[in-house]
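ingest -> validate -> predict -> emit
validate: passed (alphabet ok, no gaps, 197 aa)
predict: started
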Amino acid sequence: MFFRSSMLMTKSANPFLLNTHELPRRTGEMKEYQLDIESNARIGVPLIAVPEGDVIEVDVRLESVTEGVLLSADIYAVAIGECIRCLDPVEQVVERKIQELYRYEPTNEKGRKKRREEDDVDLDMEDELQMEGDVMNLEIPIIDAIILALPVNPLCSEECLGLCPDCGEKWEKLPEGHAHEVVDARWSGLEKLDFGN
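emit:
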């Protein structure tokens, strides 16, 4: 059974935060959610991205495991950009699957949240995703998945011929043999001279 959750951005809330309080912490327990996350920033590469304010659809399955919560998700978004050859608009559907383990927060012997000392930083732990109480932050895995799915140099089509560098028209719309007369700049001053009688 899916739980529909609209995670629309508010000024105070991060739209990528998911509260998992409904998921029991017993190993093997599962919950599924359908999320609509309103992007709070442009997500992508310089020439193509999911625009700020667009909705990213995420179907999430959470499973309690011994070390934390296992996230499996299908991501759907639409990126907008422009063709590097002809500058026409380009639209690309992003569909990605991700799977990440969110570790439970470390606790002391009494089950209380452990305070992290500054000199107690484990670099391997820094790269791991971690639960914050019942909350998981989906921002890093979703952004990474979208960026990795996008081309650095988007094209409207593989056959795109681009633009004529002289007139800026699309090559595909220009007649065969289209060319511009090239005048050597060194001789251009002679055009102004009148050699008439």
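Residues 1-12, 121-125 have pLDDT under 50 and may be disordered.
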